[in-house]
Amino acid sequence: MKIKPSLRIRPVYRMINTSEIIEAIQLIKLDIEELEKELSGKYPSIVMDAIEDTLNRYTYDLGYLERRLSRLQKNNTSGN
């Protein structure tokens, strides 16, 4: 079953304001760094799969939030 990209976005991301988006981006980037370090660990394959899945999800979320922030900032500058 193929899920539409718009349905993959966490609903909370649609409700947060600009400062919260910036904070979420910073936190996701930190988590991505930590997960990338964990990829070099000696874990069972099921754990490595979970780390990779989480890393892929965070990368997707980060892209969405960065695009949303860019749109919000563009709308704020064009509205002034």
Describe the secondary-structure layout.
Elements: H1 5-8, H2 18-38, H3 45-78
Summarize the structure.
With 80 residues, this protein is mainly alpha-helical. The protein is built from three helices and no strands.
Describe this entry's structure for a reader:
The longest helix has 34 residues, at 45-78. The chain contains three helices and no strands. Helix 2 runs antiparallel to helix 3. Helices cover 74% and strands 0% of the residues. By secondary structure, it is mainly alpha-helical.
Q: List the helices and strands in order.
A: HHH
- Count the DSSP helices: 3
Low-confidence stretches: none
Radius of gyration: 15 Å
Average pLDDT taken over every residue: 87
Helical content stands at over 70%
Helix/sheet category:
mainly alpha
What attributes characterize this protein structure?
80 residues, mainly alpha, 3 helices, elongated
